[in-house]
Design brief:
Length: 285
């Protein structure tokens, strides 16, 4: 008889946010694999759960995934938990899940809190389509490149962020995505829960104030730049030369501007260039 791997969600702050099923499984399994055993012990003590724990974190994931999946193969039932929320969501567990699947072992999700879902439902931004991007890159160049990739997604954009980068990330988002409605959801389910709503530039300013950016936080950004309706209408009637000029005045060089215009209009770059040259020649006549 082989065992089972249970992926158990735990609270993101308020200890009451744990399901009856999660508590039963944490009681019944042979072993609980934790990101930080001391952290999880506090939760287990609160619910008087005596199950043995072992560590499973990003630095020992590879070896542990092999060891734990072997234990499951020989009959052990193991629960994996992260420090907060759902294991596997910006937290380790992926390798263990893959190892178990490859060996044909049973993998059972035990759902519960995830910070991005709690943030999304309370944000007031559309929930019908969303994109969850995990943590934004720490360095500004990579972060901007990431934001450019998702600029056109017709979905609410959601990212995890650390307090010391929040103001910078919001400012980058304002620059790359344009002015948009946004939300910063902090310390969800905890004593100092705070859901700040506003424009990207307003929130960037608010969190740039020393001491304002504290706690754990989620950034959510609306899918459309403010004033997009008008912009789209104007853009529809703009010539290629006008579009290129507008982008150049925003700081892009001609090559980058033309590339963007070609992409926006669904034209090959060479064709966009040919039309640009023709428009400019006509303007000179
Ligand atoms: N596994 C977790 C989940 O299911 O949401 C996420 C773990 S990730 C390492 C930690 C990040 O999640 C934090 O930096 C923050 O962005 C977000 N987060 C976790 N708890 C939060 C809370 N109570 N309020 C707001 N954001 C939270």
């Amino acid at each position: 008889m082989t065992g089972t791997l249970y992926l158990v969600a735990t609270p993101i702050g308020n200890l009451e946010d744990i399901t009856h099923r999660a508590l039963r499984i944490l009681n019944e399994v042979d072993l609980i694999a934790c990101e930080d055993t001391r952290h999880t012990r506090k939760l287990l003590d609160h619910y008087q759960i005596k199950t043995k724990t072992t560590s499973y974190h990003e630095h020992n994931e590879r070896e542990r995934a092999a060891e734990l999946s072997r234990m499951i193969e020989t009959g052990a039932s193991i629960a994996i938990v992260s420090d907060a929320g759902t294991p596997g969501i910006s937290d380790p567990c992926f390798r263990l899940v893959r190892a178990c699947i490859e060996q044909g072992l049973r993998v059972v999700p035990v759902p519960g809190p995830a910070a991005f879902v709690a943030a999304l439902i309370a944000s007031g931004l559309p929930t019908d389509e969303f994109f969850f991007g995990g943590f934004l890159p720490a360095r500004s160049t990579a972060r901007r490149a990431r934001l450019s990739e998702v600029r056109r997604l017709p979905a609410t954009l959601i990212f995890y962020e650390s307090p010391h980068r929040i103001a910078e990330s919001l400012a980058d988002a304002r620059e790359i995505l344009g002015e948009r409605e946004a939300v910063v959801a902090r310390e969800l389910t905890k004593l100092h829960e705070d859901i700040a709503r506003g424009r990207l530039s307003e929130l960037a300013e608010r969190f740039a104030v020393e001491g304002a950016a504290r706690g754990e936080m989620v950034i959510l950004i609306d899918r459309t730049p403010l004033g997009t309706e008008a912009t789209i209408e104007t853009a529809a009637t703009m010539s290629i030369a006008e579009r290129v000029d507008a982008l150049e005045s925003e700081g892009l060089d001609q090559r980058a501007a033309l590339k963007r215009v070609a992409r926006d209009l669904g034209l090959p770059r060479a064709e966009a260039y040919r039309r640009l040259v023709a428009e400019r020649a006509r303007a000179e006549d």
